[in-house]
Amino acid sequence: MSLLKKLHHHLLYQPFGGQQNNNLIRDMLPMLPMEETLTILDIGSGTGAVAHQLQQQKPHWNISGIDVLVREECAIPCRPYDGTTIPLEDNTVDVAMLINVLHHCDDPANVLREAARVARLGVIVKDHYANNSFDFWNLKLMEWIGNGLTGINQPYHFLAKKEWDTLFAQLRLIPIDRKERMRIYNRFLDIFFGRNLHFLAWLKQERS
Predict the structure, then answer these.
(1) Which CATH number characterizes residue 89's domain?
(2) Structural domain that includes position 102
(3) Which pTM does this prediction carry?
(4) Strand duo 62-67 + 78-80: pairing
């Protein structure tokens, strides 16, 4: 890891990453099925930090990941995939997770469609709302600060709430639960980087 990346990690991820993940898991757990055992696929795992912290709270859940860019430091078992087709049969896992992933995808609709295909119970999505141009540039700044040194794909596919709703409807995904005002960092930082920029949704496939 270069000196600049180490500095970035020390100043950003160490002080804020764990807090952000804990806040996210606190909001996510009430949405997920409270079964004794669950098989969860973390799509776009990154460092695996969210999945790892979730695994610590639910040790009987089986969580593994896939990513187009598998990191050596990933905290969970993770294997590469092409970003287009998940190498699993239909309904192979119980839950698919897409945590801050879809806005990084060149074709977010296909990635979400694939997640719904392999997940038997549903898909949990954490992403962003860009309901106006100010929101868009705010989110773009956040991505530049957070991921500018990581090599992650950055097409900046930030959608408005209406666009997300349209996408869910096109894929026949029903938002069973959704949280739109989330504590992301702390009260001060959330004034600039929280507000209405984030959402968490538990989606289930509409069955014909």
Answers:
(1) 3.40.50.150
(2) 3-205
(3) 0.85
(4) parallel
Number of domains in the chain: 1
Q: Is the pLDDT assigned to residue 12 strictly greater than 60?
A: no
Beta strands 119-128 and 198-205 are antiparallel
Q: Which two tokens stand for residue 88?
A: 């699993």
Taking Cα atoms as reference points, which of 121, 91, 130, 112 lies closest to residue 172?
Answer: 112
How would you list the strands of the sheet with 62-67, edge to edge? 78-80, 62-67, 39-43, 93-99, 119-128, 198-205, 173-179
**Using CA atoms, how far apart are residues 82 and 88, in angstroms rounded to an integer?**
13
Over residues 39-68, the mean pLDDT reads 95
d(C-alpha 63, C-alpha 48), whole Å? 10
- Look up residue 207 and give its amino acid: R
Residue at token pair 């991505």: 143
Instruction: Write down the residue that tokens 């606190």 correspond to.
Output: 26
